[in-house]
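BUG: 3D viewer hangs when loading the predicted structure for this chain

Environment: internal workstation, default settings.
Expected: structure renders.
Actual: progress bar stalls at 90%.

Input used:
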Amino acid sequence: MNLTTASRTFQLLTRILDVRTATEPFLPTAAEKPAIPLEGVLQPFPRVTPESQGVSSRHIQAFLEELRGRDLHTHNVMILRGGRVICEASYGGQDLRAAKYTFSACKSVVSLAIGLLADSGLLSVEDPVADIFDDAGASSPRRRLKGMTVEDLLTMRSGVPFTEAEALTETDWIRRFLGAAMKGEPGTEFAYNSLNTYMLSAIIRRKAGMSMTDFLDQRLFQPMGITGVHWETCPKGIEKGGWGLYIRPEDLAKLGQLVMDGGLWKGERLLSREYLSAATAVHAQPPAETGDFNYGYQIWVGRHENTFLFNGMLGQNVLGFRDSGILVLTNAGADTDFQESRYFEIVSRYFGGMFPAQIPEDAAAQRDLAAAVRNLSAYSREPEAPGKAAVPFLNRCFTVQDSRGASAGLLPLVLQALYNNYTAGVVSVAVSVKGGLPELIYREKDGLYRLPVGLGRPEVSQLDFRGNMFHVAALGRFTHDEEERPVFHIRLEFMETPCVRILKLVLDGDRLLLRQTETPGEPYAAGKLLKAAQSPLYRPLLLMAAGGTEEDFLLFKTRQILSPELVCVEERG
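Structure tokens produced before the viewer hung:
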């Protein structure tokens, strides 16, 4: 990190951690998330019974139940064998028709695009990176990059320390990457860095003569019936590569199945077996704390099992068991970066062994599995009408009197930071009735959000956060706290993301207490900040930004910003 970037990072952290004022982004904001309709996929996989593929329905039911663990925060599951779906399920207010944010799982998609270029003779993984960007404007790229190849980017061994966090305050990512001081020799040390994947995205654009999305659309997406894809771009208009992809779960599973089948889709060769063999071979050994996987070409490779993995933070996974031909896709909102979650022990225990080609059909077990899948989804429940417990909240508006409201907003802070699009601060909250349901009216200084809140069963609406469009599933209940104060508890699932916002409206005499939390939230963010604070480079910066001198103060500031409790008074008249 150079001094300019360090200064900008310090300024941004200071703004985020100051709860008395709205966060002013360092770079101009721009809408990045378009509206993507909730709809099924083209060319869906066949749906068959588990037993027809050699797997017991009761075995799958037990697996789904185990994924209900509170620490796993499971959203979606799809299980395939031999290119056939044997089970699919959504938890709570989630919906498999929603295009999901994949985080780093899309790195593996970038690898497939590199393979397409290699198959076409437009690129070799041995090509020097400096030759590709000789005109990029960075000072002496040939000397600085010291023989770095495309393969070094693919295997996370470039030796360049310019990271995703630093990119939040920069506009020319290619120039900063090429001009960064090297940390070790390329091709030697594994260092996970999403900007390596970004550079691969930039290479694809240069070599293909079109955006990576358009290139993939021509070569993979159209032949496979993959639609509704959106990939965020950097300030220069190049796909971020290492993150930023929205894609429907079944469409992402198609790409996993393509790897499983050695590059074939419905008998047609789309990608060479030779490239995929190299991409799923071990090229680097990440630290043990990341999990039980080695690294290939932007694809994780099992250390002790014959598996491959597309892996994104917070639980976005496509895991292929090569020996059995079973593919398991999951979306989640767990507090993990890599494969630290106990999910991997669970999925390996259920699907890591061998399975017969088929077993006798079990109609009773299939009915039980179908019932279990229905019960996991909140949409299977009967809607409820507001009862007497709702009356104290209805048709009342409360104005925020707390200065900490300046940094609080409806959109989870994780998403605000992701989109460089911060709230201007909450002004008031109100509850009305519309169509027989309670409606939350959440006013910020520069926006008004109206959400129908389902009782018993979620209600889905689409909200516009300064041009970023999100489907939100809202489920509420009227209850009381331990002091018998009326409480309106609202769970908001931002369906295309791992993020959940919890609102608790607590009536306390003439006041309303507005409590806000989010998942992933305080524990995850605090852990990340504490880890960064151990670094001699980041420790002074983080503690200065927090306004304190000890880690405890940093945790306090994290709690303030992620779990505020705001005092509101009723508007009269």
